[in-house]
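Repro case for the chain-ordering regression, as requested:
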Amino acid sequence: MSRTTGGGDERTGRTIRSVEIALNIIELLQERGRIGVTEIANDLGHSKSTVHSHLRTLEKRRVLVREGDGYRLSLRIIDMATRVREQVGNYDVIEREVDKLATETGEIAHFGIEEYGEVYYLCKARGSQSVETKSRIGTQQPMYSTSLGKTILAHLPPERQEQIIESCRFEPHTPHTITSPDALYEELETTIERGYGIDDEENIEGLRCVAAPVKNGETVLGAISISGPTSRFTDERLHTELAEHVKRAANVIELNTKFS
Amino acid sequence: MSRTTGGGDERTGRTIRSVEIALNIIELLQERGRIGVTEIANDLGHSKSTVHSHLRTLEKRRVLVREGDGYRLSLRIIDMATRVREQVGNYDVIEREVDKLATETGEIAHFGIEEYGEVYYLCKARGSQSVETKSRIGTQQPMYSTSLGKTILAHLPPERQEQIIESCRFEPHTPHTITSPDALYEELETTIERGYGIDDEENIEGLRCVAAPVKNGETVLGAISISGPTSRFTDERLHTELAEHVKRAANVIELNTKFS
DNA sequence: CGGGAGGTTCCCCCTACGGGAACAACGATT
DNA sequence: AATCGTTGTTCCCGTAGGGGGAACCTCCCG
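-- result from build under test --
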């Protein structure tokens, strides 16, 4: 019943059971695609009648649709997502710059935001020679092993930074992954000095990334990055041409963005 | 308390109040962006304590985030949306063909799906000379006044077709909008015969569209369309070149799509 | 025709939810 | 600094709303 809330701070207090059940149903549906009452009831350990009234509620509210024999999530979710995206700063500019970055460099470009102590990809664009990665819009990655994550982390206010790092469970994804708070703090230091963050095969073997922070005054909104194979991402190119590219893109977004 | 469920069929039976409250909160958040407990409580007519426990539940489950003074929807919604999209047939192919259609014709292209008696835009691409429309991924449009809608409707099984048309409230958006079931049935007839559907300034003045159905065997998955200004969408061009384009795109999607 | 699986309905009992009110944490205004 | 107003949080109580069991319906398959 209890889930690991690996993220930032642990919340305590009363929560509402029916809402949690509904969310469990939604999450299950999200994983499985299209399923029926009985399967859901068995999986969640609830009676069919309970699940049934939930499904009815969610269908009435157009969160899900009955399709053939079973239910699936409704397309309204997509509408919601679009609105969420638009609420984040000036999304149009971000998208345009990510696209531009990908075309100019030929590599893969991302824009990410911190939430719950992880990086969420807000948008992504692939250049002409970009490698295929499993990244997908909306998925999250750890902060400590990605260029986006480390860059954002470096520019967060100290107390939030600590909070996140403390609740981090460092798992080595490759031999290069940073696995201790101390090493991470040091890396953040150099990230600040340098003005951009890098990921040297720390998350995926053979993949290097450069990221620059996008700030609004003193607060970080997120970061923008380019990723590519070590073969093309030489030390030379990474620290000159590519670093310049992400910094320029970040700058353009900053200039074009007026936050609330 | 009761909402107009304009869509397909009216559902009756027990629904769960707490879940509805939670959904109301989510919807409010979706409209307003970032708001606090008191504002939500006032707007929904609930006590602050009630709203508070709901917010706590939703925050725990990462549906929303506390940001500064207030809450906003979390980026996890975007992840959910991405998965929903991927569950729809072969989304990659659809996206590619919509893009291609837009580039080839220079106009604006859409792919839409029927749900709750309306058309939902699943994806969209803009060509080089495309006009700006207010359409957005995830938004819905009426069936009877759009080329996508009429095309899908024409190919739906008779009982579902009737069901939707009966629950339709025909509102004239322009002088050309079809406003009676009879006229609509007739139009659907010709749509079937012709093999593609058109919208001749029925939804937006000055805008014409052509759409072709995308089917999987006997069932319609959705439809793909091109839209543009009447000046460029002459009878001649619309019924030859453009109609061919959408039909070809629809065909490619059909061939590349293996449904469950 | 009969059996089985999944969906729907009914009803009961208990709990967990909604609401009111008190409490706490800021901030502004004078 | 002191006071008030505003917003977020906590506590507690009474009850109605929700979870569960079991019966019932529907469809499919042999």
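Ordering looks correct now. Residues 14, 16-18, 36-39, 48-49, 52, 69 of chain B lie near DNA strand D (CB under 10 Å from a C1').
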